[in-house]
Structure formats: C-alpha cells, structure tokens
Amino acid sequence: MSTKIERDKTRFRQIVKGKIRENLRRYVTRGEMIGRKGKDLVSIPVPQLDVPRFRYGKNSRGGVGRGDGEPGQPLAPGEPDDDGLGQAGSEPGAHILEVEVSLEELAEILGDELELPRIEPKGKARIIQEKTRYRSIRRVGPESLRHFKRTYVEALRRQIREGAYDRSKPSVVPIRDDRRYRSWETEPEPEANAVIIYMMDVSGSMTDDQKDIVRTEAFWIDAWLKSQYDGVERRYVIHDASAKEVDEHTFYHTRESGGTRISSAYEVCAGLIENQFDPEDWNIYCFQFSDGDNWGEDSRDALSVLGSRLLPRSNLFCYGQVESPYGGGEYMHLLEGVFGREHEKLVLSEIPDRDAIYDSIKEFLGKGK
Length: 369
Description:
This protein is α/β, with parallel strands linked by helices. It contains ten helices and ten strands.
C-alpha cells in the first residue's frame, strides 16, 4: 500500500510539473508566486487540474447505457425549471488548486524551459567548511559535556519510579546511569560563493509598475542562481542623482523625485566589489535596471566606471531597460555603441512590459557565465 501511495504521489507531482511548464510564461510574467513565497517552498495556483472521478446518474431515467439513443440526446439531462433560468445555489464552487513546489524544482523547470546552460563557478566556489553543532543528548561522554539539567531530570524520574523520592525531604542524587551528555553533529556548511548586486534607478521617471517588473524578474534570477551555487549573497543599490546601498524592502518601495546619475550607482557597486567581494573568490553578478534616462554629462563617467572597474571583475553584467512613460531610453544606445551587443560579459535587454520578462531572463542567463 505504501509503495502504491508513493507511486501515485510521484505521478501527481509529475502532472503538476507539467501544468507549471504549460503555464510557465504566465507565471513568470504575472508574478503570481512572489506573494506566496515561503522559506523554501512556493505555493502555485494550478488551473484546470482535473482529478478523474465517477459521476452517477439517476436510476429512474433511461439513457444510451440502457437502450438505443437518439442523435443529440443528452447523456446527463438536467432538471427542467419553470422559467428556464438557473436558480441560486448553496454549494461551494470549484476552486483553483494550490500546490507547493520547492524553489529548487522551480529553478529546474525554468532552466529546462528556457534552455539555460549550467554555470561553471570560478575561484573558491566549491569550498565547504564543516560546522560542529551540539544538538543531541547521549548517555556517555566526557564530563566536560555533562548536561546537568538533563542529568537531574533523569535522576528525579528514577527516584519517583522507585518510590525513593521524599517530598518532605527532597533530595535528588544522580547515579551513573542518570548522567546525560551533550553530543555534537558535524554538518557540511557551504561558504557563500556568489553575490548578486542589484542596481535600480528610483528617480521620478521610474513608476511602481516598472519596479514591479524588476521585482518579478529578480525573483526568477535569484531562483536560478541559487540552484547553481551552494550559497548566494544579495546586495541592493538604489540611485537617483546619488546612490546608496539599501535593504531589499527599501529597494523595491523607494521612489525619489531627483535627477539621474547612473555613475553614482556604479561607484557604489564597484566599492562593494573592491571592499567585500574579491573576484578571485567570488562569482559576481550585477543586474542594473533603469528606464535609460541619464544626465548627459554623467554617461561618460558611467561608461568609464563600467568598462574599467565593473566588467573586468564580474562574471556577468546585465542591463535591463524598462520602458517608462517619462524616461528617454538613450542609455541603451550608448551601451550598444561603446560595448556592442556581443560583449563577453555585458548583456543588454529591453523590457517594455511584463510580457517581455520571460525573454529577458533568457537573454540575461543564457550565456551560462
């Protein structure tokens, strides 16, 4: 019975994965899963997942199963009513089924559907350190690890069982069999070996819709890179005319009204790499999102920092230009003119709307860097 249940469960998960694959573009572009994300699992609404079941008719009626049928004769006739209109019902309606899928499974589906190549890490990307944790209790061990509270409890239980405990004169004396000791377990603990640095323009020309596009795309980028590395660090940089490092919530919910200097974000990003993430040991991924509107004089400085301090140190530098009703969009053309579309480490992607997120992810991660 147990084997049959496990077989059915495996088959069900295969069906679920198939439905996710069929609807992957919609899930990616609409961001339906971000709000349902837990620590390791994501709840996904899976539409039209029909579970086979028997439906019984009324024994008093005839049908094609009990005699000759006529063309057009309904197999399951309904009850006629006086006015031909349906009546209000009291039964619950059908609900979309939600299933839990691990982030690792999601990344696998994403990689297969987008045909993403596996990433070959560099530097010390596979270093594993062992961490000792005291998580269990044993009956034997060195006296230096004796757990006094557990020893006392065991001695008290024994005396109560034996009827040797006197409440009027409470005295608990442990014997050798009562002693309990802390015990350790050695676990492999991967060192963080990749860092993702997100940069986003939060000036007045970037609307909440554009930021939501960035948030959705970042979710899938995170899922894929986490599946390729034992550990991933993330950093967030926002900028208008000046830039600063912030936390994730601030990154997605801040909106300023100042001008735009992209070089300020590049300076902060370069400083993070130079001070915290040695390229010899870290796999560095930079993702910049902007509407392409930049102060004219600043573009020269931005391109200089990008070419001399960021591209040489990064595995990959991705620039995504989200279309805004207020932005000019010229920065993409400047990047194309200076570095070209076929640069080894620089990937450019235009994201005019939500429907473009799917293809943008493939552009960004398709090089396998």
